[in-house]
Amino acid sequence: MRLTDSRALTRVRQFLWGTWRQGSSMRRQLVGRYGYLVLLIIIILAVDLYPFFDALRLSFFAKNLMNPGGDRFTGMGNFVRLLTKEPLFWPTLWNTIVFTIGSVVFEYLIGLGSALLLTSRFIPMKNLFKALVLLPWAVPIAINSLIWKFMLAPNYGFINQILDRLGAHDFLQMNWLGDLSLVMPVVIGVNVWRSFPFYAITLMAGLATIPKELYESAQVDGASWPARFWHITMPGIKNVSMVVVVLHLIWTFTNFDVIYLLTGGGPLHASEVLPTLLYQQAFELFDMGYASAIGLFILIFLVVTVGPLYFRANAKT
Amino acid sequence: MARIRLDHRLLPAVNRVFAYVLLLALIIFVAFPFFWVITASLKPNRYIITQKIYLLPPELTFSHYMTIFRYGNFGRFFFNSTVVSLSTVALSFVVVVPAAYAISILRLRGGMFFSRLILSLQMLPGILMIVPLYLILKNLRLLDTYYGLIISYTTFTLPFCFLLTQAYLLTLPLELFESAFMDGASTRQALMRIAIPLSAPGLMTASVYSFLRAWNDFMFANTFTSSAHARTLTVEVSRLLGVWGTEWGALTAGATVTTLPVLILFILAQRYIVEGLTAGAVKG
User: Could you tell me the CA-to-CA distances from A315 to A104, B12, B98 in Å, in that order?
Assistant: First the structure.
């Protein structure tokens, strides 16, 4: 303990002494070099750190824009209200978790399947198909959600018409986004459609880094393809997979656009997630303090659950 | 014996057919919704809201496009989206490039800490930032302005542009800069003449990304704009969703117009998009 302390102290002393001794021209140059950072530091302070600390501050205040002048400090009041008095809290948290895990699992499976297919030696014009597959991901989420709202519309929507033709069952009236038990799977499906291309493209890049010789020697040794998959392919794309999954756990947990535009959290809050709950509190009820507390809860939940994975994934690669 | 030999010869062919079938399924899965929306935007209303499936428009019409541009003021929203997205790109570029250069090439003390800070900032969800940003923009009277949107977009473009640019600069050989400094180049000259030209592909990727993120945003634009003054395309298209009934012709036309620039950018800059995506995930 003491050893490291004294070592750190010595290092600090050496650094200070060293900088001082190097004279004024060196010091001026140092300041000049830090000048390159000034603009970024100012803007990051203004648009990232200040709003963040403002959200932190707001979460301890009762602040409603409909009641100007009524701001007051409530301590943990907003958090207590969220965790104990909010009837929507547990269902919403559960929906958010289901939405996130469900999306990520299916995105990974379809993404990996597409990556394996598109890297297989049978497929010609790989770049064309790669670009095509990436399309749903590159288009605005808002537009994707509206496209699917159109596809899923009752009566004249394409999905219902096709199902109606294929099956004996009467599917025309089916209201996918208005059904209490179907709405979550459908919303997850749309989100999977939008996000799986990211997995496909990055996993393809991961697959390309696996040396071909590994497969050749495995084949010589007579390894079956499931064995090759488990012992060569999966270890080879482990790190990329980790990064993609962690990023998407964060992005999906905080995703607002998909559900807001498809269902608005309905019917009867059946697809309500924390981001849409926050949005209603902030911009329909103007309860800014409470909304900030929800936002902070989202952040703390993420930091505790996937935070360590996030930094480990970034450190590894 | 004969059967085994036959299998050996047949297996690749079977696999090939199997791969083609899967590929076809994948393409339909990915592309059909776009095809359906684009063709719908070209159909007269009676072929859109119908219980028959018309894969191709039996009759072509551009009336939905005429409607949204003439009565829906879509020219204005297109202009808004373009100005805001391009300004976001320009601002991110000017702010990020010198900083990434100073940290990764000039190896400033504290650079590691700074990179790590920015990495954590990337984890800040937009949904948490939306309340304080709204209040700040409200106090500065920047709601419903281009400036308000550009400022709020930099909250997410700056961190990832910085990380992307830094990752690219770190791949450049450091000796190049060392010899330039030996020859008496100033740090500014090294930035302008070596770092920027050599990292052009990386900067291109960062720019394309910033543009896409700004163009595609819905949440901030939906919250921070309230009139045609600064409202962007994504928000305007979503407003075509009616409470009682939706004009699907106009909506699909609007969706197509909003998607078109993304498609064009995609065709022109596909390489950078794919590269950026994999750089972000593979290199962190």
Answer: 22, 41, 24
Measured between beta carbons, which residues in chain A are less than 8 angstroms from residue B64? none
Please tell me which residue of chain B has the smallest CA distance to A160: B51
Q: Under an 8 A CB cutoff, do B128 and A39 touch?
A: no
Q: What is the pLDDT of residues B68-118, one digit of tens each?
A: 999 888 999 999 999 999 999 999 999 999 999 998 888 888 888 888 888
Beta carbons within 10 angstroms of residue B119's beta carbon: 18
Closest alpha carbon to B169 in B189, B191, B192, B199:
B199
- How many CB atoms are located within 10 Å of the residue A207 CB? 17
For residue B277, the chain A residues in CB contact (below 8 A) are: 134, 198, 201-202
DSSP string, A66-84: TSTT--EE-TTHHHHIIII
Q: Which two tokens stand for residue A79?
A: 């958090």
Six-digit token pair at B168?
């690219």
CATH code linked to domain B76-283: 1.10.3720.10
The distance between the two most distant Cα atoms of chain A, rounded to a whole number of Å, is 88
CB contact under 8 A, B37 and A147: yes
Minimal Cα distance from A55: which residue of B? B132
pLDDT over 70 (residue B179): yes
> Do B30 and A140 count as a contact with CB atoms less than 8 A apart?
no
Q: What are the boundaries of each domain within chain A?
A: 2-58, 81-316
Question: From the list A51, A299, A310, which residue is nearest B133 (CB)?
Answer: A51
Best A28, A130, A150, A159 member to test B by mutation, with max B CBs in 10 Å, is A150
pLDDT at A49: 92
Whether residue A314 and residue B284 make contact (CB cut-off 8 A), yes or no, is: yes
- Rounded to two decimals, the pTM is 0.88
The pLDDT of residue A316 is 56
Burial code (b: 16+ CB inside 10 Å, e: under 16) for B36-53 equals: bbbbbbbbeeebbbeeee
pLDDT tens string A142-154: 999 999 999 998 8
Nearest to A161 among B51, B103, B118 (CB): B51
Closest listed residue to residue B128, CA positions, set A265, A303, A188, A125: A303
Reported ipTM: 0.88
Q: Give the pLDDT band (50/70/90) at residue A160.
A: confident
What CATH number has the domain spanning A81-316?
Answer: 1.10.3720.10
Q: Is B37 left (phi over 0), alpha (psi -120 to 50) or beta?
A: alpha
The answer to whether the CB atoms of B278 and A202 lie below 8 A apart is yes
